[in-house]
Automatic annotation (TrEMBL):
<dbReference type="GO" id="GO:0036297">
    <property type="term" value="P:interstrand cross-link repair"/>
</dbReference>
<feature type="domain" description="Helicase C-terminal">
    <location>
        <begin position="331"/>
        <end position="487"/>
    </location>
</feature>
<dbReference type="InterPro" id="IPR001650">
    <property type="entry name" value="Helicase_C-like"/>
</dbReference>
<keyword id="KW-0067">ATP-binding</keyword>
<dbReference type="InterPro" id="IPR022307">
    <property type="entry name" value="Helicase_put_actinobac"/>
</dbReference>
<feature type="compositionally biased region" description="Acidic residues">
    <location>
        <begin position="830"/>
        <end position="842"/>
    </location>
</feature>
<feature type="region of interest" description="Disordered">
    <location>
        <begin position="810"/>
        <end position="842"/>
    </location>
</feature>
<dbReference type="InterPro" id="IPR011545">
    <property type="entry name" value="DEAD/DEAH_box_helicase_dom"/>
</dbReference>
<dbReference type="InterPro" id="IPR055227">
    <property type="entry name" value="HRQ1_WHD"/>
</dbReference>
<feature type="region of interest" description="Disordered">
    <location>
        <begin position="24"/>
        <end position="58"/>
    </location>
</feature>
<dbReference type="InterPro" id="IPR027417">
    <property type="entry name" value="P-loop_NTPase"/>
</dbReference>
<dbReference type="GO" id="GO:0003676">
    <property type="term" value="F:nucleic acid binding"/>
</dbReference>
<dbReference type="GO" id="GO:0006289">
    <property type="term" value="P:nucleotide-excision repair"/>
</dbReference>
<feature type="domain" description="Helicase ATP-binding">
    <location>
        <begin position="108"/>
        <end position="294"/>
    </location>
</feature>
<dbReference type="InterPro" id="IPR014001">
    <property type="entry name" value="Helicase_ATP-bd"/>
</dbReference>
<keyword id="KW-0378">Hydrolase</keyword>
<dbReference type="InterPro" id="IPR018973">
    <property type="entry name" value="MZB"/>
</dbReference>
Amino acid sequence: MAFNHLPAAMHDALEALSVTPVTHSVPMAKNQRTARPAGDRGSRPSPRQVLERLSSGESRAARITHMEHMPAREGRHAVWPDRIRPEVIAAVQAAGIEHPWAHQAEAAEHALDGESVVIATGTASGKSLAYLAPVLSTLLDGAEAANGRGTTALYLSPTKALAADQRRAVRELAAPLGNRIRPAVHDGDTPIEEREWIRQYANYVLTNPDMLHRSILPSHARWSSFLRSLRYVVIDECHTYRGVFGSHVAQVLRRLRRVCARYGSDPVFLLASATSADPARAAGRLTGLPVTEVSDDASPRGELVFALWEPPLTELHGERGAPVRRTATAETADLLTGLTRQGVRTVAFVRSRRGAELISVIAQERLAETDRDLARRVAAYRGGYLPEERRALERALHSGELLGLAATTALELGVDVSGLDAVLIAGYPGTRASLWQQAGRAGRSGEGALAVLVARDDPLDTFLVHHPEAIFDQPVESTVLDPDNPYVLAPHLCAAAAELPLTEPDLALFGPAAPGLMPQLEAAGLLRRRTGGWYWTRRERAADLADIRGGGGSPVRIVEEGTGRLLGTVDEAASHTSVHEGAVHLHQGRTYLVRKLDLEDSVALVEEAVPPYSTTARDTTSIAVLETDTEIPWGSGRLCYGSVEVTNQVVSFLRRRLITGEVLGETKLDLPPRTLRTRAVWWTVTEDQLDAARITPEILGGALHAAEHASIGMLPLFATCDRWDIGGVSVPLHPDTLLPTVFVYDGHPGGAGFAERAFHTARAWLTATREAIASCECEAGCPSCIQSPKCGNGNDPLHKRGAVRLLTELLREAPHPNEREEREGQEGQEGQEEREGQEEAG
């Protein structure tokens, strides 16, 4: 087999791993239409038949560890509220939707009543129509009542692709309404000459939090007529706003509300979310407002066959001789090839841009061996493409011209890909909410669909494919965010002061932590207090203090050395590991080598190259306990949560062969140490517990280290994070606890809520960790259980059996959740009584 478009080293690696083994539906109405886009087949095989063909052969069949069948569900109709204008109802009916589902009508009623509402129903349940019907009706009312623009609405999405898709949907739906509805996308791709028209005339502006933060709010005076008339703010896919990113967006929305109040408007927030735990609470934390929840999904659903697929072990060996499982990338490429040959319209979701490109190239090469025309019907879709390239791919997918697409999560978030038959998911995407969002891309026309989760060589993926109940019998996660994180809040207070001077009454809008930060911002010379409040007095743009998709701070610019062209930026916090000297950097499908990292000028100089390897930074980490907020006895050991200071230094990097991960060499680096004040959960064990677990001093370090790695890998099952969002340290004798201790901490300044979630679910989290290690078929540890792809110590020492015995003993004495909650309640009551006593004494 030939892979003509790949570097020679990648070509060799793929050879070693190869296995032989219409009518467009309107997105907001996709669940209510039965027509499929023009396809390639007359008779359509069932999802079970498609899966049987994929898994034919003894070696293939053994890779399916579980198959879940979800039967079809009937829908429940309702009638639109009588305040929805008849022209809007007629336009919806012209799109093929005679009656709304019950949850759509309920959400529209709340919106018209002026109540902020979150619609948290399944994929393809018509959430878009639930908010568009009241929005369009209100825009029509405003257009008739005013001579100018009238009422306005703002739509926020996490991706450009989704905003562009929604504009198309609004235009199609609102076509019968004439030019009274004027939707326009305002993002980084919008030409300068169009932006003035949008500010003056558009009444439905579609943008993203980044543009709101950096462009609209700092220039609010130029947007005054739009903001003065703002009635609704739509926040689509709001479950994606979690962790540090979600905390930043929460503060951007508070700034928006403050500026709107300045112009006399008080918009209603309409949020759409994939099914999530306690969506009203999460939406309220995001917006700072009370939010009504609509979560009873009344839409119909076609049958779904969901398979869990584990790639086989290969004859290759990785670090310290550990067996290597065939990669999810190579396995997914095989499956995409097979589905395309069956004429099954498929999207393969991949976590990385490189992975998306690679899967599409492999599939194209294999299809070209038998049918070159078929090979041209497979492509990749990811961030970094030019806008016209993305739009062309979206059109080809809509029309059925494309049969197979390897995509990053840019296509996960609500983009209309109705008519798909199957979805492949290359590696667990980090949360059950995201997993179901991706799986729901198929079968969106109400017909049956196939979803396949292909496990990566990772402890969490290994656990899930062997414990299907963790996917199918568990609710989706809560959305974790912390708007009061001082590292997030401080730059937004500066940005708010630059927009309008901050007053004492304003501080309540930004949360309880805001008043305490003001003296610090004054002392730092960032704000100056005068009679009218706090003012931003610097020449720089205050909005540039916060990188809302990072952890704050000034980003490091990535510049092409030969041309001076700016390729992009990376968070300052991540620069040591991602753009150190010698690092391989990917940008828009091209590969670059970092020649120099200048930390003083915040710039990384790169040059284009095609190295036959990837790079992984190695670091050393120490941790100090600053404050213990709460602790609970676990037998003679303790489970604790509090504030820590982490000192980290990147000391070297590994070069790994593409695809196989084989280590080619290590290069030393000379970078300064970095400190991070954050939040952590940690647990200690005593000598008695070690004796009971038969842990000798010789294996103690390896047992703790293995338990740390696996627990980090498993935490995304319990908190809405990625393993790269968190870090860990294990110490046989920690100077602050004076005991063997394992720490897991948030990898963001001030914390992101992940460690706190780990503390509150510790028994279930560490039980799953033990199961993941014990059930792995390897002998002494591998990437599927205790080896970590980001270990700064080269995965040494590790002791698999010791980790299992240690966790078994720790969990044997762990309190059950109700016992712990009772103890926490007692401690909280005692603390409250003590505080009240101190106040009385004062």
